[in-house]
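Supplementary Data S3. Sequence and structure tokens for construct A.
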Amino acid sequence: MAVTQTQNTNGEAHPAELNASKLVINLANELKPLPAPESLAFGETKTDHMLIVNYDPVTGWSTPEIKPYGPLILDPASSCFQYCPNVFEGMKAYAGPDGKPRLFRPQKNMERLTRSAERVALPPFDTNELLKLIQRLVAVESRWIPSQPGYSLYIRPTVIGTRAALGVAASDSACLYVIVSPTGPYFRGGTRPISLLAVGEHARSWPGGTGGHKLGLNYAPGFMPQRLAAKLGYEQILWLLGDDKKITEVGAMNVFVAIKRDDGDLDVLTPPLDGTILPGLTRASCIALTEAHNTGRLVLPGISPSQKLHTAECPVTMAEIVAWSEQGRLVEAFGVGTAVVVAPIGRIGFEGKDIILPIYEAGLGPLGKGLWETLTAIQVGKLEYDDWSVKCE
């Protein structure tokens, strides 16, 4: 792949910046047949093409290329294999009413990707240029976006360290690539409530750690506890932290609980971004939408305009969850994330007993369903809100 150096005002060469205008597109000679949407499992089907660009500490970012999907060629000593400077994002493209693909608040993903790359000292890149490249890739692969409700094209931008040396040091080389995959509902049961096992003996993240960033190394330590939970009949883990057993995340999702107040309003609570919680895009969007409901700017479906949603980012302990459940005040709990949007929680295993949450005919309770309907309407362009839905021109 071609690489170039640029010169500063003094004529001195310095590493080239990421530049979307230099994009080279090499299309596949043969395109794959499109699978039946109902056969899609999350992340398993790959499209025809991928985007790739490499960073060299001397020459900088290479010429970006969209090329046929295929394996990467990496040195066995690459930093990504040895020390895990690997970061990624999760995004989706949706088919809009006009047939054009749309992204949901993509600049927020770019901002988080930058923070993640900085946390593991990967080479910097211009996220505005990367977003242009992603939009171009989505346009090239637009035939892969299913038009059925609940379906989308999942986008996985990834940056890995490729320094080919075993010395313990930051990687001065990198590979940035983007792959896309058509997908349907994350859980095959749709909005059926999921069961959780509350786990405190295994930590997903901790103060001063990397839980607030989207790093590959955050995920593998959760696989073994997840297997243990599955053996006990639970689908996901509710991660706890500290002696007071604060709830942090649900599997790889942010979590919300809704508590009924004496005045009929709801307290909508989610753990704070204290460095142990991933700053999820869906999480931030849910907070914004509950605040919009309170001001009357946007009324969530199924929620009375007069019912206030007192949203707060604050610690929530398992002792509080148990007490609210026993008092009949715990009316909803749900996980949120890009892959699933909103997933209702029906059962929480804690200290040998199950906390059973209210059962709703739609799976999701009124608040979760209102958020899900509003988010999905914005994502596909049926509802315009604050330029959250961005067309891939």
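Construct B, processed identically:
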Amino acid sequence: MHCAGFHGQLGCNHDGNEDTPRLVQLGHTTLPDNPTREEEIMAAVVSCGGSHSVSISRRGDLYSWGLHSSGELGLGRHAPTEVFLPRQVILTHRRIVSVTAGESHTLAISENGELWACGRGRRGQLGRAAFHDFWQLQRIDSLRNFRIVSAAAGQSHSMALASDGSLFTWGDGQYGQLGHAALEQIQMIQPLGALAVPIPQKIGELEPSGLSPPKRITAIAAGGNHSMALTVCGELLAFGRNHRGQLGLGEVGNRWRPSRVDLSIGAAVRDSVRAVQVSCGACHTLALILQGTRLKVLSTGDNYWGQLGHGDVDNRLRFVPITAILHAKPVAVQCGAQHSCAVTERGVLYTWGRGDCGQLGGGDEWSRRAPAPLEGFRVVHPDRTLRRTKRCAPKYRAVRRQEAKAPWCLPRCFEAWWGVRGGEVGQPVGM
């Protein structure tokens, strides 16, 4: 996974890195009730992939920028290979309400619950019953009988959650990240063969009709080659690659079917523990849990760059609380490929992990093994960013506390400000 801005994925009209937050502008549009004035197009959702970025405006228009070598920007074959400023993706007569970027592909959900895909498809991750790239958004017709409410894109696999709780996965399945137990048998028979599923398949074990309502899936996240699912009652299910302990199961070894993660280790017997949000990096995972009445951030997996936030570089095989931010009252978490972020209820943003391209936003290119607050900036809750307010251009110029409020939302916006890539993260949940 890349962590630099040389493909234009920062949207700042250059191919360099940024080590402090910088505002990305989607452009301006004419006010419908006053053609002589303009308003800034405000971003409501942002997602960062391997070398590209995508955003939805408050009007439901989709924008993309960065590397377009496999069609991941959805701009068509005639668009440049590298796009340095946000460009609108045309999808006629449809508003986009959710978007997620994988390593080299993009998944978007329209307001009527249709799922669309574009980009690299050589492992079947576009769900179009094919193994080639698509340069424009294509509807995944096999899901037309389901209303999709959430999607997640990993390195080469994809996930989709339907409104009834059905969970579909497709794409690369060689490590178990699709959650289909039958693939393990195929892998045992043909250990050298590629395991790829080019059409969305429902995970039978999680069929909602066979589960009680508290056990049904309500949120999903995709890592490099691992997957996470969150149930209504706050249980965390993990499957896929686990060579670094990124599944948090206390051992290494891939899991081919959804496995329950024990989050209660170390908790007081009297405290109830439930997961409220999960986010996956390349080989690590963050979870926001509610223990008793207190929210805590836990991490597990690869820690080479200090992305687990424990002040060292030792891997963890189970989820361990990050003590450095216990006092800060975290309310949201997000993973990049090898760095991590957390937001507190006061809007303070903490970052840690790999920082050699400025992705931590602290004004340098140093990696950090423990969470550090991003001084001078604050995060605005998504509820506030989604409220439309007309502003004649050019009003928003900065996100510093003493100036305008940041027009980005969380948890998707972290890497859109700086540092250049966001990792293969899953849909934000629990907000």
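The helical segments are 182-189, 382-385, 414-417. Residues 28-417 form a domain with the Methylamine Dehydrogenase; Chain H fold (CATH 2.130.10.30).
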